[in-house]
Amino acid sequence: TALVLYALRANIDLFYTPGEILYGKRETQQLPAAGQRLRVGGMVMPGSVRRDPDSLKVNFSLYDAEGAVTVSYEGILPDLFREGQGVVVQGTLEKGNHVLAQEVLAKHDENYTPPEVEKAMQENHRRPQRADKDTSS
Fold first, then answer.
1. pTM, to two decimals
2. Residue positions in the annotated binding site for heme?
């Protein structure tokens, strides 16, 4: 039984918001561990998308009202991927607040937002500033 539970736990991708990666789940305050597989839902921060001109590599930030995480992905992004839109990435948490994504899912149309992202955004109405603006002043 313990072996089965261990195997299942190793293959479960838990859902987090950017704020939960930084500060832990509300219920437990437990932070995800580096190397953990997870899904992260948030909004693509305007001004954060950086594409490598020589490959399919792209880096961007996902945010909610509590913070932002950086995402690296290599592959073809969904047609509906845009700055300011809700996405869910599936991948591995690297050190700090960096996610190495194996998959990026964008919302299906202008009226759909993934349920986890919708709930997180309703709970956190504030939004951070653009990634390309200095907010220190």
1. 0.74
2. 108, 112
- Is residue 111 over pLDDT 50? yes
In terms of Cα–Cα distance, which of 59, 61, 60, 64 is closest to 20? 64
Contact criterion met (CB below 8 Å) for 100 and 72: yes
Domains of the chain: 13-123 (2.40.50.140)
Q: Of residues 128 and 56, which shows the higher confidence score?
A: 56
Contact 59, 50 (CB under 8 A): yes
Which residues does residue 81 pair with via DSSP β-bridges, in sequence order?
Answer: none
**pLDDT, tens digit (0-9, with 9 covering 90-100), for 8-54:** 555 566 899 999 999 988 878 889 999 999 999 999 999 999 999 99
Close Cβ partners of 121 (under 8 Å, ≥ 6 residues apart):
43, 64, 65, 86, 113
Q: Residue 33: left (phi > 0), alpha (psi -120 to 50), or beta?
A: beta
User: Which has more confidence, 105 or 122?
Assistant: 105
Q: In whole angstroms, how far apart are CA 71 and each of 26, 75, 127? A: 22, 13, 18
Residues making up the binding site: 108, 112
Dist. CA 89–CA 97, nearest whole Å:
14
